[in-house]
Design goal:
7-stranded parallel β-sheet, 12% strand, 9 strands, binds coproporphyrinogen III, alpha/beta, 13 helices, TIM Barrel, globular
């Protein structure tokens, strides 16, 4: 298995946001529920939308249908998804007390998500696709809380990280505890791989990246390795730029590359690092554009990562206006993109 460090040719593939609005069958289910979080908390529907992309495409994994913001929601914070605007969270500041992590209340709130994982595990039992669980990384969750929602540059979150370091670090520590617990629970219910999405790692400068991104990710990897050593962890520290190679030192099974990091550069760094498996990193905009450029880029990425275990994926989530035929075309190109089969 590639996440255990063996190459496969062609590489296995799944796609970030492979379940979602680009699929008409997702939009049909989504139209039946009043709000997005209700979909995440209805096991029957969450299972259905998780499996939808597997019915259409030859993918190697299913990723639990949920959202990173269910963790702050389960900590009692007010999280809402506003149509056309994205997530809104009640803004947290140094004048507020930290969210309280009560594992029993947390698990009660997330029971429908655990139930979804268990049903998916059962549905995939005799199939080859792996079941991937996930959580938002502590910094990215903290960024949404400090900002009160999404943002282009998370300026308020950064400002607080500099001005009130003890408060922000305590918040990140609290979220680290909750996220570790959440991932262990997903594993107990049948997740075979877990991924940490640090979508906003890249808004921070180096000293804050070390404290608020790399240190907590390292602590989560270590805790999971101590408790569930057989479960591979994938890290996605989006936007780390020149600090990306540092994510290879945290003991994870794989590091997912964003769209901007050159795969060959990361391959060179991974060759001698504790983490050798790389995931990524096709530009989702190219999956919208399609055509000859898409085929050429799939081949370039596969070649650049050819010497290492590689899981093909996008460098960020599928865009809602992606034509599903382009996904099928990309997978067809990928099937013949290798060339150095070693049977592993
Ligand atoms: O198929 C999958 O990848 C599994 C499901 C999944 C969703 N969100 C479903 C979703 C996963 C893994 C996520 C992770 C997530 N959520 C991240 C990390 C990955 C990344 O994209 O960087 C982040 C930052 C979020 C927060 C979030 N959720 C935002 C910013 C938005 C709104 C933006 C948008 O695309 O609309 C969401 C909503 C969301 N999460 C949707 C889906 C399918 C669309 C909502 C809808 O259907 O109405």
């Amino acid at each position: 298995m590639v996440l255990a460090g063996r190459r496969r040719d062609p590489p296995p593939v799944w796609l970030m946001r492979q379940a979602g609005r680009y699929l008409p069958e997702y939009r049909a289910v989504r139209a039946r529920v009043p709000d997005f979080l209700a979909l995440c908390y209805t096991p029957e529907l969450a299972v259905e939308v998780t499996l939808q992309p597997l019915r259409r495409f030859p993918l190697d994994a299913a990723i639990l249908f949920s959202d990173i913001l269910v963790v702050p929601h389960a900590l009692g914070l007010d999280v809402r998804f506003v149509e056309g605007e994205g997530p809104r969270v009640r803004r947290l500041g140094p004048e507020d007390s930290l969210p309280v992590f009560d594992p029993d209340a947390f698990d009660r709130h997330l029971q429908p998500v655990y139930e979804t994982v268990a049903r998916l595990s059962e549905a995939l039992r005799r199939r080859r696709e792996a079941l991937i669980g996930f959580a938002g990384a502590p910094w990215t969750l903290a960024a949404y809380l400090l900002e009160g929602g999404g943002s282009r540059d998370f300026a308020r979150a950064r400002e607080l990280a500099w001005a009130r370091p003890a408060f922000v670090e305590a918040l990140v520590d609290r979220l680290t505890e909750a996220v570790t617990h959440f991932l262990v629970r997903q594993i107990e219910h049948g997740a075979e791989v877990v991924k940490l999405f640090d979508s906003w790692a890249g808004v921070l400068p180096e000293p804050l990246v070390r404290r608020l991104v790399l240190a907590p990710l390292g602590r989560i990897v270590e805790a999971l390795r101590a408790r569930r050593p057989e479960v591979p962890v994938i890290l996605f520290p989006r936007g780390l730029s020149l600090l990306y190679p540092e994510a290879l030192q945290l003991g994870a099974a794989a590091v997912a590359l964003d769209t901007t990091v050159p795969p060959a550069t990361m391959a060179a760094a991974a060759a001698t690092a504790p983490t050798r498996t790389l995931q990524g990193n096709l530009d989702p905009a190219l999956l919208v554009a399609g055509g000859a450029a898409l085929a050429a880029e799939v081949r370039r990425i596969v070649r650049a990562l050819d010497d290492l275990p590689h899981v093909f994926n996008l460098g960020h989530g599928i865009l809602p206006h992606t034509p599903p035929e382009h996904v099928a075309h990309m997978l067809e190109v990928l099937r013949t993109a290798g060339g150095t089969a070693d049977g592993a």
